[in-house]
Amino acid sequence: xxxxxxxxxxxxxxxxQPPAGALPDLGAFITPAPASLETFRKVAExxxxxxxxxxxxxxxxxxxxxxxxxxxxxITTDPQLHPQAATFDWVTGDGxxxxxxxxxxxxxxxxxxxxxxxxxxxxxxxxxxxxxxAQHLAVVVDAATLVPTMHHAYEQIGGPQGGFxxxxxxxxxxxxxxxxxVLGAHGAKSLTIIIKK
Length: 197
Hints:
The chain is of the alpha/beta class. Helices cover 24% and strands 24% of the residues. It has six helices and eleven strands. The strands form three sheets. Strands 1-11-6-3-2 form a five-stranded parallel β-sheet. A four-stranded mixed β-sheet has the order 7-4-5-8.
C-alpha cells in the first residue's frame, strides 16, 4: 500500500467518525456503602492471599520472618520493612537483576473490598517487574485506604497518570480445562497482605 492509499483510507475514517457523545453516568454503581474489611478479607483469602492485621509497622519484620523464614534474597522498596533486605542496586537494570528474588515487600496505595485488589504504581514498585518476578510477594496497605468497589478506586486514582500502575489480586494462578488450579504459574507463588489498622 502506497502513501496515497494510506492517506485516502485515513481521511475516509476521519470523515466518518461517529458524533461524540457524553460518557454514561456510573453514579448508580457507586454505592454509599462503606468499605468492609471483612469483605476484603473474605474475597482476598478466597483467591489464595493471606491477610495479617497489624497495629504498628514495627511488627512487620517479625511477621515476615515467621511466615517467610529462610528467604535468601529479600527485596523491599522500604528497608524499614525488613532488616535483612538486599542492599545491592536492584533498581538499575532491565529487571533480570531481580530474577533471584525470593520475597518482594512493597506498599500499595489502596485496596478494593469487592475483589481483593491492591493498587500499586511505579512510585511504590520502583521496578515494574518486581511483583511478578519475585517468588513471593508481601504488600503493606493502610486500612484507611480501603474502598468498596473498583468504581471508588478509579475515582480515587483519577485520570490517566504517567508511568505504570497495576491492580494485583491474589497470587499468580491458572487453571486448565480439567479445573486443576496451579498457584505461582507465571508470577508470585504467594501473596501476603499486611493491613495496618
